[in-house]
Amino acid sequence: MLKILVIDRCHFTRTGMEAWLNHTDVLSSSLLVSGMNNLILAKEHILQWKPHLVIADLYGFLNDALPEQPINAFFAACRMTPLVLLQSGNMPYRPQYASHAVLSKHTPLHELAQRIKGALHTHPLQEAPESATPLLSPQEEKVLAMWTEGTSNKEIAYALGIHGKNGLHL
């Protein structure tokens, strides 16, 4: 499954791009598309989620009080991820920022699709790790299993030996 992150301050562009990627046969594999409108959160999302492709319009972030720091951090996070930049403003991106393509937001969708495919083919896809860290501890799994069976919170606490300080919210 390919993971694609769309970053844009414009809600309509972001959701439109997500919908277009999800509902067309742009790519022949299944997709997981996520959209963000915050550059600092996007940087962290890139580092944690490790998307296969980032599509971003950074023009809306250039009007921030100190745009250089988050933009530089964003590009540092993208150094191993293919990046397609969309350009909505008049100011061109600096060549110091490495990207697979810089396209106008007026680019036809078929050309955008070709650039996306090209960006994904230039970088080898990284496979998911063999083993993943469990999301819940064994104790949490027991609580969840009992809770989904309809066991009351007090019965769960009694059965699992959960007391005051470690189970106030049961």
TrEMBL record:
Residues 129-170 form the HTH luxR-type domain. Keywords: DNA-binding. One of its GO terms (biological process) is regulation of DNA-templated transcription. Pfam families: GerE (PF00196). It comes from the Bacteria. GO terms for molecular function: DNA binding. The keyword DNA-binding applies. InterPro entries: Sig_transdc_resp-reg_C-effctor (IPR016032), Tscrpt_reg_LuxR_C (IPR000792), WH-like_DNA-bd_sf (IPR036388). SUPFAM superfamilies: C-terminal effector domain of the bipartite response regulators (SSF46894). This is LuxR family transcriptional regulator. It comes from Salmonella enterica I. The lineage of its organism: Bacteria, Pseudomonadati, Pseudomonadota, Gammaproteobacteria, Enterobacterales.
